[in-house]
Design a protein that fits this description.
- This protein has helices at about 30-40, 55-60, 80-95, 115-125, 185-190, 215-225, 230-240, and strands at about 5-10, 25, 25-30, 45-50, 100-105, 130-135, 145-150, 150-155, 170-180, 195-200.
- The protein is of the alpha/beta class.
- It has one domain (about 5-135, about 170-240): Spore Coat Polysaccharide Biosynthesis Protein SpsA, Chain A.
- The protein is globular.
- The N and C termini lie far apart (about 45 Å).
- GO terms for molecular function: N-acylneuraminate cytidylyltransferase activity.
- It comes from Schaedlerella arabinosiphila.
- Keywords: Nucleotidyltransferase, Transferase.
- Its EC number is 2.7.7.81.
Length: about 240
């Protein structure tokens, strides 16, 4: 069964300029996603969907393909990830290239690894699932959350006020790293969360939203701690 990795990397970024190619622990952040996809060995094609010639150039230098640039329609602030993926799959189809599965990998996901992608693809095929999404468990139970009404705090779900945290059902959220889907099922439904979507649970330590410079700094700190030895050896190689 054939598969394609699609790394979605739009050029514009208001809060963090050139976010998708900003240097992260020594190299442009998009390279982590490209390298993970290449090293996983589970993709027949690895491409970057972008509207930026600069991003396209960096992507191609590091082993990804950019056979076409995004259309104006999928480059604006209102285009969804599903819109971008659909455009890519249709463009490949017109070129006579069809795939059974695609992985959508975000370009600012340095904690995605080759082993995660390979493991996730294997799990999806083994379970005969329609799709897979990387998720992380909420660190605090949402069932114990507060709302503010007329300046006063109250439980959003008062029925859980006296329930022990360990007795509450775990709730997860998308960790913003990758999705894997059946191309056929996705094109029929135009959504990344299909009827038979399985979770790929990621540890909280390996998850970090990167929306602000502060988020970026936290992500670099986490990455340095988690992959400290590898990162330090690279820095020593540079200096020697």
């Amino acid at each position: 069964m054939s598969s394609i990795a699609i790394i979605t990397a739009r050029g514009g970024s208001k809060r963090i300029p050139k976010k998708n190619i900003r240097e992260f622990c020594g190299k442009p952040i998009i390279i982590y996603s490209i390298e993970a996809a290449i090293k996983s060995g589970v993709f027949d094609e690895i491409m970057v969907s972008t509207d930026s010639a600069e991003i396209a150039d960096i992507a191609e230098q590091h082993g990804a393909k950019v056979p076409f640039l995004r259309s104006e329609k999928t480059s604006n602030d209102f285009a969804t990830t599903a819109d971008v993926i659909a455009e890519v799959l249709e463009a490949y189809k017109t070129r006579g290239q069809k795939y059974d599965y695609f992985a959508c990998i975000y370009p600012t996901a340095p904690f995605v690894t080759a082993s995660k992608l390979a493991d996730a693809m294997g799990s999806l095929k083994e379970k005969l699932a329609d799709a897979l999404v990387s998720v992380v468990r909420y660190s605090f139970p949402p069932q114990r959350g507060f709302v503010i009404e007329e300046e006063w705090i109250k439980y959003q779900y008062p029925q859980y006020e006296r329930t022990r945290s360990q007795d509450l059902e775990p709730i997860y959220h998308d960790c913003g790293q990758f999705y894997i889907c059946s191309c056929e099922k996705f094109l029929n439904e135009h959504t990344l969360i299909l009827p038979k979507t399985m979770p790929y649970i990621v540890d909280e330590e390996e998850v970090q939203d990167i929306d602000t410079i502060s988020d970026w700094n936290i992500a670099e700190a986490k990455y340095t701690v988690l992959y400290q030895e590898d990162y330090r050896s690279k820095e020593l190689d540079k200096k020697s």
